[in-house]
Amino acid sequence: MTETERLRAELAEARQRIDDMAAAHESFLRGVSHDLRAPLRHVTSYGTLVREVLQELPGQYPQVGEALGFLATMEQSARRMGLMLDGLQAIARAGRAPLRLEAVDLDAAVREARTELAAIEAGRAAGDVQWDIAPHLPAVWADARLLRQLLLQVLGNALKFTHGQPDARLAVQAAPGDVAGRVAVMVQDNGVGFDGARAQHLFGVFQRMHRESEFDGVGAGLALCQAIAQRHGASISAQAAPGAGCTVRLDWPAPPLAAQ
Prior knowledge:
This protein is an alpha+beta fold.
């Protein structure tokens, strides 16, 4: 065996090990998510029954109101756990879904994502949200379905974290990447932002920059975005400051010349 053949064999073996580890990781996440559903259903189902029993008790029991308050906290935590399991399953699926790579029109992809987010934007006062989407966004080399998921998360976050901002501004820009054959896509908002020193934790599973009482979500959306970006050989990063908004940057492969 020549040196070149040996290196190719070692590379193939390393890739196989990586694939095996990814498959095992996905299987673990899928199994955990599935197995925890049954006890979670018991908590939510029996919580409803307990509430009905408590509400039938005579009003002279002062502990009933306190017990109902405890029950509400339990039910809220159970719903949150259900959302966390949904997030784990979405990340597992994104990590192993077959990639159907093609040249995807970023203009059209952003428009479609905005259409799906229209219900969120409709809950804001007229004129509260101003979009600045660069004309003629370039095509990117991506699986259209997974890219749609990523854009829904990133644009949805920009909308969410500008809530309460009377002049919310959201921008989508693109430029040639720092490396040839790459596209840099920036999604910028002027929302609440966060401590930029914690940006490296932003894409971890269940990592949150704000209290749940301020903004909903369980902290799985950007972890999903990172999983999708990594599948494409892309990267995702964020820059922010408290009260000064956030910029999410995607460094994404451009379509090969043959596909353009």
